[in-house]
Specification:
Oligomer: single chain
Largest sheet: 4 strands, antiparallel
Shape: globular
Helix content: under 10%
Number of strands: 6
Amino acid sequence: FTLFDSATPVNGTVPVVVSGLLGANERLLAIDLRPTTGSVYAISDASRIYTVTLGGIATFVLVYAVQGLLP
């Protein structure tokens, strides 16, 4: 993901490489910043939810599965 200055959110300034994903070829699909806590959450292509530090270290939280939507 890319860090940016909230005054100029269009221009990402610092690309961050994320480490700590459980799968060898696992990729992050989306990230979300929780404003009240400052936590960054990410979901991977393996349906895993992670918290991610601004330094790029991912910590596994849970597997997200909705019955009937995933194979």
